[in-house]
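USER:
I wish I could look at a protein chain and see how it folds. I am handing you a single protein, as its sequence and its fold in token form. As I understand it, each token names a local backbone shape. I hope you can help me see how the letters and the tokens relate. The protein I mean follows directly.
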Amino acid sequence: MRLSHQSNREQSPDSRESGSVLTKTYSLTRLLLLCGAIAGPLFILILLIQDYTVPAFNPRLQALSLLSLGQWGWVQIANFALAGVLNLLYAVGLWRRLHPGRAGTWGPLLIGAYGLGLILVSIFRTDPANGFPPGVPAATHPSWHGAIHALGALFVFLMLAFALLVFVRLFLAWKERWWAVYCLASAVLFLLIFFTGFTNAAFMARTLRLAVLIGWMAASLVAIKLLSTSDRLILSSAVQSRRRSQ
């Protein structure tokens, strides 16, 4: 009995150290997921503030990317970049939380690509258009940086839509049908509104904002859902995924 008691006493410091490491790892993962939870709402909040404070800017007629031009353009550039960095951190959190289970590989990769795309559009600005900035003539042909910005925006929308479709499979595996339906509906509406917006120039600025609201918030709500999901469910999903791969 004494030997057993002594052995337990000798092991307890290691156990405490192991528990401390696990606690720190869990806290870091939650912090990274929290970055994803705030990325969408923060981007939209900063965008709305600019919509109604930037002089001569009309959010009903002028696309949100035009906010990166002019005297206050640095605010939207920083908004794009900040959202990109937060989503890159979110991708790391997804990897730590889900890998090697369902959506544990493609989910983080696609969200990471979405974040990189946002950083890309913050670096390469769009061309002046629709009278903004005031006094600057609209470009007759896209500039090289305007073309990269447009392609970057397309890349951002596609990567986020594909990520939401990956989360559909995740929630179906977890038997979270309403969450699966929400992600599927968000992905479909997100792309549908984005592409149909280009068919009507008068409504393009408004439809683009609606698409951003749907997509950005969906990504953040998934992060919030993962923050509230039990470890047991995620571990069970990882075990099932390993069994299928063997």
Summary: Residues 32-245 form one domain. The chain has seven helices and no strands. The longest helix spans residues 2-51.
